[in-house]
Amino acid sequence: MNKLEYFNTLDPRPKLTVVGAGPGDPDLITVKAIKALKSANVVLYDALIADELLDYCQSDCQRIYVGKRPGESHSQDFINFIIVEKAYMYGHVVRLKGGDPFIFGRGMEEIEHAKNFGLETAYIPGISSSVAAVGYAGIPLTSRGISESFWVITGTKTDGSLSGDLIGALQTTATIVILMGMSKLSEISQICVSFGKENLPAAIIQNGTRANQKVGLGLAKNLIMIAEENGLSNPAVIVLGDVVRYASIKEIDLKFKYYR
Question: CA 67, CA 181: separation in Å to the nearest integer?
Fold first, then answer.
């Protein structure tokens, strides 16, 4: 018996809803996402989800942690399997993912896998940390006369390398937001220097939108110094661009003088 035949022996009418939980602050989840949680029979949730969001679930809803932090064994293959298995066994599965599932969240991969096994699927957007964390730090991604666009780039591709899109972005005036890039701070700084952007205003934002949010400000050439002096680590968002000056004019001007 193959996997599809096995799943077809289980309870029918399976459904997967891939839900964005937002950037961290539990109040930033959408009303539609809350409705999905309330109707779920099973919720599979990630590492960065605010625990309070699980309170919206029914009392008999299964809540299953499938985070992927270092040292944890929840592979994507395991998650894909359990989505289908639980959907056929219990009905409605909500896959609760941080930020927006379609921004470096592998949400479409999970939806396509579920469709291959006959599940009904749905997607509910979430507010991405690439927007919200930056805004909570007082930084607009665009500002008239300063930045007309923004790039959101992954700091860690499937093979572990930094996205080459950073090189393209540095040749524009766009604001650059790098997610999952804290292990690449030195490489990012070196690339900025090589393109003459060493003095580009930079920010690192840890735990964006949460009560314990921390922000470090400085220049692109000093990303490691910014992280070390402010005790910054994952989860964090890196921002490069002149709009970073809005974060705190007085504070960042002092930082620029120091880091030069």
Answer: 18
Q: Which two tokens stand for residue 141?
A: 């991604």
Is residue 46 flagged as an active site residue?
yes
d(CA 209, CA 23): 7
Please indicate, yes or no, whether residues 31 and 148 belong to a single structural domain of this protein. Answer: no
**Gyration radius of the chain's alpha carbons:** 20
Count of structural domains within the chain: 2
255 labelled catalytic: no
- Cβ–Cβ under 8 Å, residues 29 and 134: no
Residue 55 belongs to domain spanning? 3-124
Catalytic residue among 68, 89, 157, 242: 68
| 237/191 same-domain check | yes
Active-site option among 97, 180, 197, 221: 180
For residue 54, what are its two tokens? 């699980």
- Catalytic site includes residue 1: no
Q: Are strands 201-206 and 236-240 parallel, antiparallel or unpaired?
A: antiparallel
State the CATH number of the domain containing residue 251. Answer: 3.30.950.10
Burial bucket for residue 109 (CB in 10 Å: 0-12, 13-18, 19+): middle
Q: How far apart are CA 179 and CA 185, in angstroms?
A: 11
- 202 has which bridge partners? 218, 240
This prediction has a pTM of 0.88
Backbone phi and psi for residue 123, each to the nearest 5 degrees, phi listed first: -130, 135
pLDDT tens digit string along 11-49? 558 999 999 999 999 999 999 999 999 999 999 999 989
